[in-house]
Amino acid sequence: QRTKAVLTNKMQKQGASEEEIQRALYLAALSNFCIFIPSEDDEEMRWPLHPGGPLHDASMVKKKCGLNDFHTALRARDPLGVGFDSSSDQLLLLILGLLHWDPMKRLSASEAL
Prior knowledge:
Elements: H1 2-13, H2 18-32, H3 67-76, H4 89-98, H5 109-112
Helix pairs in contact: 1-2
C-alpha cells in the first residue's frame, strides 16, 4: 500500500491523469509477478519506465525475472504456506508461459497440453 501511495503521489505531482496512474500501477503489479518485464526497445511500453517516468528505477519494477523470482512472488502471497514447492517447477513454468506478456511468446492452448 505504501508503494502505491508513493507512486500515486509522485505521478499526481507530475500531472498524470487517473488513467495513467492506474496503468502504471497495473504494470508495476504485473512486473512483481514476472509477467511484464520492461524493455527499453518497446516504444509503447516505455512511458512509465523511461528516464524521468514514474516507474523508472522504481524498486517495485523488476528488470529481470526468473522462475525463482516468480516462485518467491507467489510464496509471498500465500499466507498459509500451502502453495508451490520446488517439486512444482514444471507447473510454474507452464503458468509463466501462459501469462507471458508478449502474445507471440505466450503458450497456446495446444502447446500447454
